Amino acid sequence: MTVRLGDVAPDFTAETTEGTINFHEWLGDSWGILFSHPKDFTPVCTTELGGFAARKGDFDKRNTKIIGLSVDTLDSHHQWKGDIEETQGTALNFPLIADENRTVADLYDMIHPNALETLTVRSVFIIGPDKKVKLTLTYPASTGRNVDEIVRVVDSLQLTANYSVATPVNWVDGGDVIVAPALSDEDATAKFPKGFTKLKNYLRITPQPNK
Ligand code: BEZ
After folding, report:
1. Probe ligand 1: pick from 45, 76, 80, 84, max atoms within 8 Å of CB?
2. Which domains are delineated in the chain?
């Protein structure tokens, strides 16, 4: 099944390293990140899982839960945890789904057979508190993800969900933002007391409104 932006994230119940989880119930009112890795006991995946675990505090601050997945068994996940802690210096501190029968992988189209025949690629789904998919990313097995980028995207999604703005190229939290094109200059003046700079009729820049 293809999961597209704006779709309700498919719900499921799965076995994880933190017990059985019903995805929508587990998400509750939080934002969520569901991400897959190809295989336990592989090098890039080991660094990624440690990398996500090291940033758990940053996701917590953003009211964002994270959950990983591969088609390995629960037993394999539990054995691998020790290697992650030993080599990456951070213990696994979020649930890992054991999707042996590929139920979740199929629901989210995480297996791309022309890239990796039977394993999940590095998919990322960011889900809003309304359970709708806000962002998807797909990386090949050979390229580890950048957790800074995923945190940055959460910041942009949360900001643009609450203010009539968009974030420009290479934006990071605290940087200037773009006034939503749908706003008139008059409405923008009312909404953004710090003012805005009009570079073009369609390109108006304002300081980040919640800073
Ligand atoms: C890795 O994590 O290094 C990896 C996993 C599956 C295929 C290739 C690389």
Report:
1. 45
2. 13-145 (3.40.30.10), 163-206 (3.30.1020.10)
